[in-house]
């Protein structure tokens, strides 16, 4: 049986900068910078609702679903053979929210900072770096792939 794990990513943007958090204690890419808010879409949950929920849970901000701008969808995989490593990631830009972003899950995040899109820290989670670099260059593709023999 083949299954994809869906996830929602919220990139808070202001004045040419993106808010990133430093992963810690998660067991996946700890020590890498990543989207300010991201997580799995829960069963029966719409992707927009997941994005709004993740922004509240991870950053303590309120996002109106109407303020989520679809950026790209990334179909990605890691060749482990595990179902958890078959993914489809929905990336949203958000330029308007209520509240001051802060680390809400301090056990999973060591830092939270704004970075210019053209001067990202190192390292950034690779599939997220793909999206951030495309965003800095202009416009990400509507659909991208990562981790396949022939990237698109």
In short:
This protein is an alpha+beta fold. The chain has two helices and eight strands.
Spell out the key features of this protein.
36% strand, alpha+beta, 152 residues, 8-stranded mixed beta sheet
**Beta-strand share of residues:** 35-45%
- Separation, N- and C-terminal Cα atoms: 25 Å
Q: Taking all residues together, what is the mean pLDDT?
A: 93
Query: If helices are DSSP runs of H or I spanning 4 or more residues, what is the number of helices?
Result: 2
**Low-confidence region ranges:** none
- Give the SSE string: EEEEHEEEHE
Structural class: alpha+beta
Name the shape in a single word. globular
Fraction of residues in helices?
Answer: 10-25%
In total, the number of strands is 8
Radius of gyration, whole Å: 15 Å
- Describe the biggest sheet? 8 strands, mixed
Q: Could you characterize what this model shows?
A:
With 152 residues, this protein is α+β, with helices and mostly antiparallel strands. Helix content is 16%, strand content 36%. It contains two helices and eight strands. Strands 1, 2, 3, 4, 5, 6, 7 and 8 form an eight-stranded mixed sheet that branches. It is globular, with a radius of gyration of 15 Å. The mean pLDDT is 93.
């Amino acid at each position: 049986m083949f299954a994809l794990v869906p996830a929602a990513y919220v990139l808070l943007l202001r004045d040419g900068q993106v808010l990133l958090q430093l992963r810690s204690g998660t067991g996946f890419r700890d020590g890498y910078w990543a989207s300010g808010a991201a997580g799995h879409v829960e069963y029966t949950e719409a992707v927009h609702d997941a994005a709004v929920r993740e922004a509240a849970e991870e950053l303590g901000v309120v996002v109106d679903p109407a303020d989520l701008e679809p950026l790209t969808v990334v179909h990605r995989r890691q060749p482990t053979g595990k179902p958890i490593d078959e993914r489809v990631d929905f990336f949203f830009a958000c330029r308007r929210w209520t509240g001051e972003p802060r680390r809400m899950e301090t056990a999973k995040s060591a830092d939270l900072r704004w970075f210019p899109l053209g001067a990202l820290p190192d390292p950034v989670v690779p599939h997220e770096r793909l999206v951030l670099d495309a965003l800095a260059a202009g416009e990400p593709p509507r659909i991208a792939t990562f981790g396949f023999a022939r990237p698109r």
